[in-house]
Amino acid sequence: METVEAGHDDVIGWFEHVSENACKVQSETLRRILELNSGVEYLRKWLGTVDVEKMDDYTLETLFTSLVPIVSHADLDPYIQRIADGETSPLLTQEPITVLSLSSGTTEGRQKYVPFTRHSAQTTLQIFRLSAAYRSRFYPIREGGRILEFIYAGKEFKTLGGLTVGTATTHYYASEEFKTKQETTKSFTCSPQEVISGGDFGQCTYCHLLLGLHYSSQVEFVASAFSYTIVQAFSFFEEIWREICADIKEGNLSSRITLPKMRKAVLTLIRPNPSLASHIEEVCTELESNLGWLGLIPKLWPNAKFISSIMTGSMLPYLNKLRHYAGGLPLVSADYGSTESWIGVNVDPNLPPEDVSFAVIPTFSYFEFIPLYRRQNQSDICSDGDFVEEKPVPLSQVKLGQEYELVLTTFTGLYRYRLGDVVEVTGFHKGTPKLSFIYRRKLILTINIDKNTEKDLQRVVDKASQLLSQTTRAEVVDFTSHADVIARPGHYVIYWEIRGEAEDKALEECCREMDTAFVDYGYVVSRRMNSIGPLELRVVERGTFGKVAERCVGKCGGLNQFKTPRCTTNSVMLNILDDSTIKRFRSSAYV
Ligand code: AMP
User: Which residues form the GH3 middle domain (predicted)?
Assistant: First the structure.
């Protein structure tokens, strides 16, 4: 078998070298970032006019970490806004920024922009090549094969100052680097650009599945950014497989595909193929009637070697279902990164997702680590879920088994920026730490690529409860929430206890108001594409939160210290809430 080995040794050789010398490489990375940008307004404010080039590494790192403050997005937001408004003087980077990415999370209830530069697309290509190289050591693939990739580019728009805004993946799928990746890894996505950028989740998924089956004998692996998408795509397939079979048989395309460009592009690729259609029909009938769709993927894509996507962190709840569809096919957990910067690569693709950690790539950004210590006496039902922090340390000083929050200094103009992710150092790859992802700090609601914090939820509930008190004689007494990841599609459930009388119509409006008030871009996009279902408002009977408090106090003592958890996965608490639910509403937004 001819496999895609060429170039793999080079990229692995490069990574082994930089990880061996990770501490030195980190110093050089910081130096490069500062040399490139020392004159920008933000750095001048903190560092003055120091001559970076004349300083030795130690002095430079010490000066940087003692003078430049640790910040969050809100602190850099005014600079990013000025860039978005068209200001061209060097504010954060010397090189002009012409593209902004929408990162997950919000700042003061607004969508969060971060700068995107050529460096961002180049590092994406680099980590994909590196990751493909490590994967091929365990699961070699055939040259010229195809990938059944469930990928979706969102829409782009312009800011006041004419800068292009979109998600980092949208920029990447439109970039030269995406084409280069297919050519250098010699694996091609089944779907054309018109499907990837179609913008309608249902129509795109249908075409991804149809083309995946059209090319089924050539498909070497199945992939998506996050595993939630694969699970959703195949549960959709369980419903529509007959329609796809009919299309394959006749070389036709279902009338559910209404986007003209997408229709045209798909129709030029497919031909009537009755024998493939009857094979799929036979397999699906067996899967549906006897197997409960166990092993769907290898049965329909017999040459697939593995499944690849992010399976860690908030994707863990979908692993069971993914394993069910995978029927024994290896699950390869994809790399760790963010819109702000790529962070680490999975150098052990053979490990199950539960055990995967990511080797930090020391050339991509300058990384610092805030040591975190869990507060004592936490339990799921009544924890405030946070940590005691210590002074940040550089990569050279991280300790095995310690938990940290990551701080990034990037080539794209973020300096000592708190990412909010909690990671644990679980080992070392040569000289670079391997991080296991724990969770996004303060994050409470997440289903897919959406990320909402307690503050976001509070703001959303405030808005809707104002509406309630304006339109009725009722008020919200207490609330909590739950991300229902079992329902398909998953959705947010918000529980309200109210005092006073409220008509159903008013509560329906409040439910809709909350759905539209979550402005995190991951949520908005997922709602528009219906990969997250309509928000649900459940009204519980009076006194329910009192019962919750009693339960909680029983566990951790002291009613005066009790705070209602604003989000819960605790089954005892959910049982109390569900048993007390008297009304349910589903949002009518995004239809
Ligand atoms: P975004 O900036 O919207 O692309 O979201 C980036 C965030 O997604 C990271 O900060 C993490 O919280 C999460 N994330 C990215 N990659 C992984 C991974 N491999 N495992 C777990 N969580 C991840």
Answer: 359-440
- Look at the block and give the residue holding tokens 């995406």: 178
Q: Output the six-digit token pair for 335.
A: 């790399």
Atom 12 in ligand 1: residue holding the nearest Cα: 440
Cis previous bond, 489, omega within 30: yes
Supply the residue whose CA is at minimum distance from atom 6 of ligand 1. Answer: 338
**Listed residue (523, 520, 462) closest to 73, CA to CA:** 520
Tell the residue nearest (CA) to atom 22 of ligand 1: 313
Q: Give the closest residue (by CA) to ligand 1 atom 5.
A: 338
**C-alpha–C-alpha distance, residues 516 and 458, integer Å:** 14
Measured in angstroms, how far is the CA atom of residue 336 from the centroid of ligand 1?
Answer: 6
Ligand 1 binding residues, C-beta < 6 A: 103-104, 310, 312-313, 335-339, 419, 421, 437, 440, 522
Q: What is the DSSP pairing of strand 336-337 with strand 581-586?
A: unpaired
Per-residue tokens: 19: 């990880």
| pLDDT at position 382 | 38
Q: Which atom belonging to ligand 1 lies closest to the Cα atom of 101?
A: 2
Pocket test for ligand 1, best of 310, 365, 447 (most atoms within 8 A of CB): 310
| For ligand 1, atom 16: residue with the closest CA | 336
Residue 552 CA: distances (Å) to CA of 29, 313, 326, 480, 538: 49, 26, 40, 14, 21
* Per-residue pLDDT tens over the stretch 533-578: 999 999 999 989 888 887 776 654 455 556 788 898 888 899 999 9
pLDDT of res. 434: 98
* pLDDT tens for each residue of 435-454: 999 988 888 899 998 999 88
Give the mutation target among 338, 355, 439 for probing the ligand 1 site: most ligand atoms within 8 A of CB: 338
Strand 331-333 relative to strand 336-337, pairing: unpaired
Using only the alpha carbons of the chain, give its radius of gyration: 25
CA-nearest of 337, 332, 328 to 353 is 332
Residue of the CA atom closest to atom 9 of ligand 1: 338
- Which residues are within 8 A (CB) of 349 and not within 5 positions of it... i.e. 6 or more apart? 131, 134, 135, 137, 138, 139, 306, 332, 333
Work out the average pLDDT over 186-204.
Answer: 91
Average pLDDT estimate for 89-105: 93
| DSSP per-residue string spanning 230-291 | HHHHHHHHHHHHHHHHHHHHHT---TT---HHHHHHHHHH----HHHHHHHHHHHHHIIIII
Atom of ligand 1 nearest to the CA of 521: 3
- Ligand 1 atom 20: residue of nearest CA: 312
Q: How confident is the model at residue 7 (pLDDT cuts 50, 70, 90)?
A: confident
Contacts of residue 554, Cβ cutoff 8 Å, sequence gap at least 6: none
SS3 sequence of 106-124: EECCEEEEEEECHHHHHHH
Structure confidence at residue 178 (pLDDT): 84
Nearest atom in ligand 1 to 333's CA: 19
DSSP structure class, residue 580: T
Residue 340 alpha carbon to ligand 1 centre in Å: 10
